[in-house]
Design a protein that fits this description.
The chain is of the alpha+beta class. It contains 9 helices and 8 strands.
Length: 331
């Protein structure tokens, strides 16, 4: 058996076959870029960067333009703000003047309304339907025969009289107030002076009283003094209310005047601390005057209307305080 094919190849035959090292060199030479490829890649990158730089430059140019416009707008706004500030100062000054003018007008209107009411008399406690169809004639008889006012003029008459607006009160509720306009203001003063001297007129178990007719503003100002007047009355002090709402107190042969209830409270507290001989004596709690509310059906309306039978005690105290205020001894 021949073994030629199993013999080793000769050296010449050995060189004809590719070696592994040759394969690696050829693969490396195939994957390494050439200089031309590198330059082409660099040129591509440069073109891309130049495009992006151009876009950035364009954006920066637009931003600069917008920023310039914003600066102009800011300048315009600053000018507008300065103008508004100066105008606001002028408007504030004008508003203050208008508020002063409004206050003067309100004061004049209130004074005018008060003058319109100077001849009026408010009559409380007259049972419903007692006046009949002619309220003015009823008031004339009530003044001349019930109150028995002396010194009325020969021209005494009631121009007109009516109950305050509103529905009739429920059973058991106080009757509505009657407002009567007296023809002569001297007769009106005589009526109030006589009513102040006498107790309320009694007719059919009804207690009828006479009061001056103040405006709502004056009523509110006077009502604020109710609590401090109650304290003064408990201590036996003599006081009176001056028009429109000024409290006069007579003590130790001195006359004091208070334009606000807070002033009267401060004086009362100082007086009580001096009487006790301790400057640091505890102050009594101030009790604010109960307010009337026209919207609350449980309270008497501001025009002297009716109230419900179940009204709270502090509201009942208002009517008592008003009566005591009018009939108090002023000294």
């Amino acid at each position: 058996m021949k073994l030629d094919k199993f013999t080793r190849p000769k050296e010449a035959d050995k060189g004809s076959l590719p070696s592994v090292q040759d394969d690696q060199q050829s693969l490396a030479s195939a994957t390494e870029p050439s200089l031309t490829d590198i330059m082409a890649a660099i040129q591509g990158i440069q073109v891309t960067l130049e495009g992006k730089m151009d876009a950035i430059s364009t954006e920066v140019t637009l931003l600069r333009a917008d920023f310039g416009k914003m600066k102009e707008r800011i300048k315009d706004n600053q000018g507008a703000v300065s103008t508004l500030q100066s105008e606001n100062k002028e408007l504030k000054s004008q508003m203050r003047e208008l508020m002063k003018t409004t206050d003067k007008i309100v004061d004049k209107l209130d004074e005018y309304e008060g003058r319109m009411r100077r001849n009026n008399v408010r009559i409380t406690g007259v049972p419903e339907k007692m006046e009949g169809p002619t309220v003015d004639l009823f008031v004339e008889d009530l003044v001349s025969k019930g109150l028995k006012v002396k010194g009325l003029s020969n021209y005494f008459s009631v121009e007109r009289a009516h109950r305050v607006p509103g529905g009739r009160p429920r059973p058991g509720a106080p009757p509505r107030t009657i407002i009567a306009r007296i023809f002569n203001f001297r007769d009106r003063d005589a009526i109030l002076q006589e009513a102040r001297k006498q107790p309320p007129v009694k007719i059919d178990n009804a207690s009828i009283s006479f009061f001056p007719d103040f405006t709502l503003r004056v009523q509110k100002q006077r009502r604020d003094f109710l609590a401090v007047k109650k304290r003064m009355r408990d201590q036996g002090l003599k006081y009176s209310m001056l028009f429109p709402a000024r409290l006069r107190v007579i003590t130790n042969n001195k006359t004091l005047f208070f334009d606000a209830p807070e002033e009267a409270w401060d004086w009362m507290e100082r007086r009580e601390s001096q009487r006790t001989g301790r400057g640091d004596s505890p102050k009594k709690k101030r009790q604010p005057s109960p307010e009337k509310s026209a919207s609350d059906p449980e309270k008497r309306d501001s025009e002297g209307g009716h109230s419900s039978p179940g009204r709270p005690p502090e509201v009942q105290e208002i009517a008592l305080e008003q009566r005591l205020d009018w009939f108090d001894n002023v000294g």
